[in-house]
Amino acid sequence: MKAKVHITLKNGVLDPQGKAVEHALHGLGFPDVGGVRQGKYIEVDLPKQKDKTQAKADVEKMCKALLANTVIENFSVEVVD
Amino acid sequence: MKAKVHITLKNGVLDPQGKAVEHALHGLGFPDVGGVRQGKYIEVDLPKQKDKTQAKADVEKMCKALLANTVIENFSVEVVD
Amino acid sequence: MNHAPAKRITPEDIKTHGLSDDEYKKVLEVLGGREPNMVELGIFSVMWSEHCSYKSSKKWLKTLPTKASWVICGPGENAGVIDIGEGLAAIFKMESHNHPSFIEPYQGAATGVGGILRDVFTMGARPIANMNALRFGDPKHPKTKHLVAGVVSGIGGYGNCVGVPTVGGEVNFHPSYNGNILVNAMTVGLAQKDKIFYSAAAGAGNPVVYVGSKTGRDGIHGATMASTEFDANSEDKRPTVQVGDPFTEKLLIEACMELMATDAIQSIQDMGAAGLTSSSFEMASKGGMGVELNMNAVPQREEGMTPYEMMLSESQERMLIILKPGKEELARKIFEKWELDFAVIGHLTDTGRMVLKFHGETVCDLPIDPLAQASPEYDRPWLASTKQPVVAAKDVKNVPWRDALKTLMGCPDVASRRWVWEQYDHMVMMDTVQRPGGDAAVVRIHGSNRALAISTDCTPRYVKANPFEGGKQAVAETWRNITAVGARPLAITDNLNFGNPQKPEIMGQIVEAIQGIGDACVALDYPVISGNVSLYNETDGKPILPTPAIGGVGLLDNLDQMTTLAFKAEGEAILLLGQKDDAGWLGQSLYLREVCFEEKGAPPPVDLAHERKVGDYVRGLIHSGKITACHDLSDGGLMVALTEMALAGNLGCRLENIAAPLHAALFGEDQGRYIVTVKAADAVATLEATKAAGVPAKQIGAVGGSAIFLGGESVELEALRKLHEGWFPAYMATAT
Amino acid sequence: MRAAVIVFPGSNCDRDIAVALEQSIGKPTTMIWHQDTDIPSDLDLIVVPGGFSYGDYLRCGAMAAHSPVMREVKRRAEKGMRVLAVCNGFQIVTEAGLLPGVLMRNRGLKYVCKDVHLRVEDSQSAFTAKYKVGDVLRIPIGHAEGNYFADEATLKQLEDEGRVAFRYCTTKGEITDDANPNGSQRNIAGVLNKARTVLGMMPHPERLADKKLGGTDGRAMFEALVETLA
Ligand SMILES: Nc1ncnc2c1ncn2[C@@H]1O[C@H](COP(=O)(O)OP(=O)(O)O)[C@@H](O)[C@H]1O
Ligand SMILES: [Mg+2]
Fold it and tell me: Shortest CA distance to C162 belongs to which of C96, C118, C119, C218?
């Protein structure tokens, strides 16, 4: 089983990376880019786990404990086979 | 229109961050984690673009030009309204 | 104009804005009986917060000595300024970011660095060095590791990117900081003496310009948060934490330096805590001016921001500038070159009022002077601290010296901080002559053979046991560290971290520590030129150890006269200077705490006349070129200091002539002492000359071998090195 | 010799390397703001300095690599002009394709600032001509992303063509894992292009080129450039 985790900045939290990338894209000839937000995408392998619900719960725990900084970030977990 | 971009390391490319996260998860009481790969998730806003196919093509160009380093990274683009 | 508040102020509003009932009465008085609206209430709450108004500490801060012939600007500006000769000035300050760092260690610490950098470059100085004074809870506390990891990488993350070397600091651990860590950051900058920029606004009609990053909803109410105690619900206050953007800060520094080189700026100030409110208010207030701002012109990051949010936002990397007439285009070009926001958001007036417009309507109209005048100032009741008994050496267990030394070298408060400073770029700018690990950091004045020496110090356990002596000691220790590299100490900045001042015993700590600091500054000719107060450092009613961190700066007129603490050569004589008698003060020593597991007794007293005499003499010896190494004695006493010298030089020593009882002589923490080494042939003459000058001196051994030898026993340096270098990495290895 | 240093927004070792160069050249270097694309035509050396160009956001060096000035640097490099790329500069030139490989996050995940030891592996370039193969240098590093990575074929080619310029080593010159501060493959600290006209390296030679700062092992690089390109 594999979990796909998306970690994104909460609304209103400054995203200096996104801002800089947006700026660079404008300079590279993409003036229509209206905004860029940069987050993380993490894949977690759970080879022994057979139960989807349990897998999701576990990975959510991992997000809270380590993967995401819940002060400024949101996370979402999707489990696939 | 908005594009969701996933950037992941190619197979065979070492991922020191993923390795370290995996290690840390083991230490935090998740011994069953079999592997972790860390990538990027970028959202690009294209407020003026009305054409999905064009949007996708544009963002793929951005990936090649800047967002991904195709020597070591793969990217995938999905466009949503 | 329409003064009718859209929403009436409720008692709940008053409370959430951190104002007491009496303070709210004063608000009404200032407004001539009219009720404020929310924007105005927000401004009152910020301006009258502890953080901005210093209402509990002002009365006592005023007693500190702030003058000397070399002081160009003392407390009151963004940072203090001293004359360092050759047309140059050093500008520095230390500031806390304690509460934000506890909530979000990486961003809290990072934005702390950003804030103190702005305080310094806003005065026209290019930042040349950063320091950081950190206090964490018990290493065994479940949160400590996470906080250490986050704070250190946040400080590095910001400072490294901006390109200012982080050259030193201090780290302590103690359970009293479990729920309330301290993150104090200091920046030192260099400016041309005749090109210093101040914040007092002048010239009605002059444009008010906003530069830097856009304003978002970050940190709204951070300043009031920094002025209230933590409780179990503090985690809910999280959204107020700001995110730092060191890249923008770097651009902001370069752009400001470029503008400062022209003749366009009338006055300038960074937007620190309480951003636009405090910067515009303070600039106008200092210059006796009024100010009118158009809130629609403020660069905004988010949609639908209200004037209330814009005025209270603590978004980072922003500055407010009053330009001279007609300089807008010149300035705009520079900021556009650096890809930063630039907006004329208003102008100065001669009405003495702060008027804010939003969509053409007046949303705030406050009298500046009366508001500032009425700013509360308290004479809070205080209790003198109880004196602790002196601990006699005979009542302290005499543990075999080798065991005690090993324990001390590997204990959290003595172990090497390499794990910390290796995460900081301490070499960028290529002027770091003494890197972290020595007594004071030494940073060359670019392009010259002169240098600044910088040290931050405080021994909180001493301050707790005796705030007056502890305050003196903190100042004296920076003075000593600066002296030990051969520099002349010039001035200090302070960062007074305490608990809740509404408790008389805490207020007593504040009062007495300030008195001690003041006495030391007078005796050492070492004035306070800037500082910061952080109160309410308590969790669930438990205060931190009182921690008045001191940052000292000194000058080396000739780098060739500098010395370091490393032993240099086999056979050199080791001299102990400044030991008044053979007592050996063990009260509040690390030996007592780490080896005997007791925290008790009176701390070592600081005899300021002695301190001065010994230090001035040692500095003279260093300048004479006779000294091959020098180190002051502090935590862990004589034996820890010798071991540090041995490890740094990778040379051992043979000790003799150590007084009894051994544990007190080796590990006592008597103040005002230094170890120096001299060539063996110079030993006798140096001892005689030193004694003739009235400074106690004796030879206690010689450099040599690969171990520390004493009384037929020895400890290998390699074993000590393992303990000293090993603790921090091993501790952090399991961090997440 | 005429030298220029490119300044990107966020560069912060631009002044440092200019100071080190000037010590050896004896005259000022030109600073080129990243938007000035008309680089002087008579340059012998361009330096891409350390720092955090564009905040190191997205990937270190990525945004600088795609800036207009780098197109010009690439054009000149192809014509044989020397390019010295240090730290962030190394990241930039690999992103720009001037040198193979990438610099990934340090295996310890932390920023590391300290002196390391380098074994000289090449003395056949304008940069390394004053070193001998096997010399051990003490040079500082300061980076969070210096972990050199390239695929096996590339590594083999680099080795076969003798294009590894420096490797992290012990004080005695041994290439060990303990001496590797960031996890770089084969302890690689610096590489050359095929023509040996472009050198990218993570360590900062400019930071130890002055006795007052505690060492001068970096200085020979600047002196070699002056002698070769004079
Ligand atoms: N947080 C820190 N950042 C950088 N350097 C530090 C830090 N903490 C301690 N150091 C460095 O470690 C050395 C030892 O610190 P400390 O024991 O406090 O010195 P001292 O007893 O001489 O005041 C000093 O050079 C100091 O600058
Ligand atoms: Mg010291």
Answer: C118
Place of tokens 């996260």: B21
Give the integer Cα–Cα distance in Å for C298 and C277: 13
Burial class from Cβ neighbours inside 10 Å (0-12, 13-18, 19+) for residue C714 reads middle
Q: Which residue lies with its CA nearest to atom 2 of ligand 1? A: C169
- Mean pLDDT to the nearest integer, C590-608: 97
DSSP string of C255-272? Answer: HHHHHHTTT-EEEEEE--
Helix (H, G, I), strand (E, B) or coil at C90: strand
Between β-strands B35-45 and A35-45, what pairing exists: parallel, antiparallel or unpaired?
antiparallel
CA distance, residue A55 to nearest chain D CA (Å): 27
Beta strands in C4-87 (DSSP E): 71-73, 80-85
Confidence bin at A12 (pLDDT 50/70/90): confident
Residues 324-353 of C with CB under 8 A from A: 339
pLDDT digits (tens, 9 = 90+) for A23-61: 999 989 999 999 999 999 999 999 998 899 999 999 999
Every domain of chain D and the residues it spans: 3-229
Distance CA C440, CA C689 (A): 26
pLDDT (mean) for C4-12: 74
Give the range of the structural domain holding residue B12, as residue numbers without chain letter: 2-80
Which residues neighbour C264 within 8 Å (Cβ) at sequence distance 6 or greater? Answer: C323, C324, C327, C330, C331
Write the pLDDT tens digit of every residue in C218-246: 877 654 444 455 444 444 433 456 899 99
Structurally, chain B folds into a number of domains equal to 1
| Chain B interface includes D230 (CB < 8 A) | no
Stretch 18-77 of chain B: residues touching chain A, C-beta under 8 Å: 18, 21, 24-25, 28, 30, 32-49, 58, 61-62, 65-67
Distance CA C395, CA C280 (A): 60
- Which CATH number covers residue B38? 3.30.1280.10
CA of C482 to the centre of ligand 2 (A): 8
> Is D52 at the interface with chain A, CB within 8 A?
no
Percent of chain C past pLDDT 70, that is, above it, reads 96
Residues of A within 8 A of C244 (CB-CB) are 16
What integer is the mean pLDDT of C290-314? 93
Distances (CA, A) of C277 to C201, C320, D82: 14, 11, 52
- Contact indicator for D126, D80 with CB cutoff of 8 Å: no
Give residue C367's pLDDT.
96
CATH topology for the D3-229 domain: Rossmann fold (3.40.50)
H-helix or E-strand spanning residue C529: strand C528-534
